[in-house]
Write a structure and sequence with these properties.
about 280 residues
Length: about 280
């Protein structure tokens, strides 16, 4: 009996550590995202930082009353230069890590809360999940660097080529309504029901955070890359995309949220096309 109680206590402690770690990482992600938003200083710069970001102009003014230039305020989060140095890659990677912590870990929380309470491997599972998304972050940094070098991303970290931005949003909108997306969501939901949190390599449907992370990546990475079009510092887009991905990954099926997100992406993409051909 005492052995059983000790195991139960250890599991409880481990699960508490897992939940605490998730909250810490999510808090770090959102703190970083908000600080990025607050470093954008002038109203014009907010307009350039992506759709919806102008709402922060008044917040910045009332908090600090100190409008400095947009470029000089970005020293801690990313670079505005065409030619990157090692520090620029580090800052860009940190920005993407912040987005992943803010957007993807909340989607994992219901699973950890439900399943982790009876399993001591939940913390390992979280690290495996994060590892997969960090690989995505590295790829996103390389894409950001390449797009910035050819000036397809401007100094405000928004796609300057509206044709490319509209094409990206249209392709993601089509994916949102596709059978491929539906199959990925079903597979993720099946894993959600059968996850056992074992560290690795078992006959079960999903045994590790890396396996679950790959399934999550297949479902969500198209929505994540829309940040290139919306603006990499666009906290409004971050919130809305988090809501869509959370609803999709927890439901495991296409819902009204998926359909609405698709038509919204179509509409915004269409506006980008109009802007490209008119201007």
């Amino acid at each position: 009996m005492s052995t059983i109680n000790i195991k139960s206590d250890n599991t409880t402690i481990t699960n508490f550590s897992a939940i605490a770690t998730m909250f810490l990482l999510i808090t770090l992600g959102w703190t970083y995202s908000v600080l990025q938003a607050l470093t954008v200083d002038s109203q014009g710069s907010f307009l350039d930082a992506g759709p919806g970001m102008q709402i922060f102009a008044s917040i910045k003014y009332y908090l600090f009353k100190d409008p400095f230039s947009f470029e000089s305020s970005l020293s801690f989060c990313t670079t505005t230069e065409l030619i990157w140095h090692a520090s620029d890659f580090v800052k860009a990677f940190a920005m993407w890590i912040g987005m992943i912590f803010a957007m993807m870990l909340p989607c994992l929380y219901p699973l950890i809360k439900t399943k982790g309470s009876t399993n001591k491997n939940s913390l390992t599972f979280i690290f495996g999940f994060v590892f997969i998304w960090l690989l995505f972050a590295f790829s996103a940094v390389m894409a950001q660097w390449a797009l910035r070098m050819i000036e397809f991303i401007d100094e405000h970290m928004v796609m300057s080529n509206k044709l490319l931005a509209g094409t990206l949003l249209t392709m993601v909108a089509i994916y949102q309504l596709s059978k491929h997306k539906l199959n990925n969501l079903k597979n993720l939901k099946l894993m959600y029901k059968n996850v056992n949190f074992k560290p690795c390599c078992n006959a079960s449907i999903v045994t590790s955070g890396t396996t679950f992370g790959i399934a999550s990546l297949r479902c969500c990475f198209p929505l994540m890359i829309t940040m290139f079009a919306f603006g990499l510092m666009n906290i409004i887009a971050t919130l809305l995309l988090l809501f869509v991905m959370y609803m999709e990954t927890t439901n495991g099926k296409k819902s009204r949220v998926t359909t609405l997100s698709s038509f919204t992406l179509f509409a915004i993409g269409f506006m980008f096309f109009i802007d490209f051909f008119v201007n």
